[in-house]
Amino acid sequence: MIDLFYWPTPNGHKITLFLEEAGLDYTIHPVDISAGDQFRPEFLAISPNNRMPAIIDRAPKDGGEAISVFESGAILLYLAEKTGLFLPADVRGRTAVTEWLFWQVGGLGPMAGQNHHFGQYAPEKIPYAITRYVNETNRLYGVMDRRLARVPFLGGANYSIADMASYPWVVPWQRQQQNLEEFPNLKRWFDTIAARPATIRAYEKGKDLSARPSVTEEGKKILFGQTARSVKA
Predict the structure, then answer these.
(1) What CA–CA distance (Å, rounded) separates 10 from 15?
(2) CATH code (residue 75)
(3) Measuring CA to CA, how many Å separate 223 from each of 96, 161, 207?
(4) Residue 132 maps to which CATH number?
(5) What is the span of the domain harbouring residue 22?
(6) Would you place residue 232 in the very low, low, confident or very high pLDDT band (cuts 50, 70, 90)?
(7) pTM for this prediction
(8) Cβ(15)–Cβ(53) under 8 Å?
């Protein structure tokens, strides 16, 4: 029913988390981002931003032709609306979940991503950049911790797409130079989600791909050297 174009990165894991929780039938199509698979014409046809994940829903809710969706937050919202799961129907609950979903895609993901880049991949270790993004990641962990002091999950009382969006970006907390013990409410939330059977299954899906060799220098050029001209070429 669902074709998932995927690589085991935080954004990729978001979608397998949902699909496993919802019990939807899906097929994974690996998109090796360090090999340049994201620039293949057939992938660009469904993901014009040359980023994974993306999906094709072969059985959309309206019964019409297949629908393709790119951008991880949009995919989570689409799947939640398709299934009626992990997104409250009432206006207040839905607003809270979408607030935290967009908080992740606009804040936690980009900032933690820059943390990863300057701390792990950049050819030159720039202390200012590393400190900037480590500190901003820390601030965002604090935002989550304060929220989770009041409610069990980011969107409120129930597990939702907001949690699925944020959890994979907290999984590499050590790589981000953070300490979960400093954020007891966030740690409680993190451990709760980690123990969910669907979470365990979702991460198993990417294990074989994760075991592949680390990003090569050539792969870094592909990942981090993109311009409008190079993508077009």
Answers:
(1) 9
(2) 3.40.30.10
(3) 34, 27, 21
(4) 1.20.1050.10
(5) 2-85+201-232
(6) low
(7) 0.93
(8) yes
